[in-house]
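User: Please fill in residues for this 184-position structure.
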């Protein structure tokens, strides 16, 4: 279904055909769940947050302007709900020392090494929710930069800059994990 078809479907829903909303839940539910599940610790929390996101989207369907696709809009709602929920959990995340000098070549070598997948997943868990979301949307969901910017509420230029900083942060986290392993 094209974006204009989805806009027509939204108009139908707003005109009383509420059962048509199931299309959006079936079409985007799994993707939204994947996004949220990568940020929270339990499947139950992820399911509840996804349900809350779809309920909120339904309740605010008349606010949908079509500025972004419905999928991007629901991602943004789910992301904002999840980040709010995580703030209440008072999670702590690693901060990046911007002064540390690391080359892009070193970062690429480390992060492209397939044997480090487990380390990379562990390192990602030490990122803040917005950093994890950016990584997930860019690498796993393959969203374009302007959609990621919309979901995260950033300017398009900020996405590339943040992505670069996050890659550097992952490099540092993995290097520290390795140093800690060697010092045992």
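Assistant: Residues filled in for all 184 positions:
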């Amino acid at each position: 279904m094209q974006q204009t078809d989805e806009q027509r479907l939204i108009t139908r829903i707003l005109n009383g055909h509420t059962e048509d909303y199931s299309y959006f839940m079936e079409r985007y539910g799994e993707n939204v769940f994947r996004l949220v599940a990568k940020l929270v610790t339990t499947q139950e929390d992820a399911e509840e947050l996804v349900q809350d996101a779809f309920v909120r989207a339904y309740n605010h369907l008349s606010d949908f302007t079509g500025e972004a696709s419905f999928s991007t809009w629901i991602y943004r709602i789910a992301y904002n709900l999840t980040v709010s929920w995580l703030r209440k959990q008072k999670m702590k995340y690693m901060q990046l020392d911007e002064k540390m000098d690391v080359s892009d070549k070193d970062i690429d070598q480390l992060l492209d090494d397939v044997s480090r997948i487990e380390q990379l997943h562990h390192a990602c868990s030490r990122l803040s929710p917005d950093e994890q979301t950016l990584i997930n949307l860019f690498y796993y969901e393959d969203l374009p930069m302007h959609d990621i910017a919309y979901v995260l509420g950033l300017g398009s230029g900020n996405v590339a800059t943040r992505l670069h900083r996050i890659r550097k942060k992952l490099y540092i986290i993995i290097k520290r994990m390795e140093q800690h392993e060697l010092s045992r």
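For context: The chain is about 70% helix and 0% strand.
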